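Aim 2 progress. For CHAT domain-containing protein, the working sequence is reproduced below.
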Amino acid sequence: MNHDLGELHRLLDDIRQRPGFEEFLSAPSESGIKNTAIPGAIIVINTSEFRRDAIIVESDQIRSIPLPQLTILDIRSNTQQGHISSPKILEWLWHTIAEPVLGALGINEVSPEERLPRIWWIPTGVLSIYPLHAAGRHYKGSRDTMIDRAMSSYSSSVRAIIRTRSRAGLKPFPLGNERAVLTSMERTPGYNALPSAGREISQLRPICESKGFEVVEPKGIKEDIVSQFPECKVFHFAGHGATNLRDPSQSSLLLQDEPLTVSTLLETNIQQYSPFLAYLSACGTGQIAREKFLDESIHLISAFQLAGFRHVIGTLWEVGDDISVHMARITYEAIQRGDSADESRTDSDSWS
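Predicted structure tokens for this construct:
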């Protein structure tokens, strides 16, 4: 037994010598976790048959608050009914989760002149499919909404946030001949055509060039795209995504020859290159379709983050073709106007 334990420690030491694996299987310290919350609070929503809580990580403390109005019965009922972005569901999310969390953080109404505070959500279980960032009472004149109170982002775990922050370096890009890899799939066999996908890339090309990027537009061939990852700082995909119901690790971006799957991404260790942004303009890139996998956060967004991209933008459900073009344009225009650093305090914060 001691021999096996010693061999395990030697193996871990060897793994931790490799680039990108320095903290492999290491538990983060309390101070390290709190330091991660300096840019904004991290909220873990924990649900079980026994109780429901929000674990709040701030720069000076870690605490838990109960969510008594959030019940397993309501969660299951609302999930089975679907329509998780309906006004009724958004108001339910406000009363049961968002409002209590904001109250605990002391975040009240924010004036239009104020910079919105940041919140990183880590929902667990079935709640991972819900739009917590849009929770609220969306009536005329109402400011009881998450969108009016805070700027939300998501992560699969606290460890994933720590890993991303450790790679950030807070440096704007590009620093040299760095690449923006832009790929569109207007036609995918077996799927509806996306005539706006090419237009989306055409609108983004000059914006990326204005930031000093070398723009590369590989055709939809898996190997051609994956081979660009080590040298790219921005990866943008406009096309179809597919969720695999039986095996979420096979959920993928659909290409001409073969899919770019979650499992392929997790095998692609590009953390040492620290690419800045993966923008997945495809339907359901953050979707996990089977309840048994909901706690595992196995989807394309988390896969790109774990592979090494510091920031990932994706979708929770199906998105219209024209809306995708519009959102991509305003996102990159915000990057164009501001400093493209991880913690920019300019307009680039508006799309994070």
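Residues 292-297, 344-352 have pLDDT under 50 and may be disordered. This observation will guide construct design in the next reporting period.
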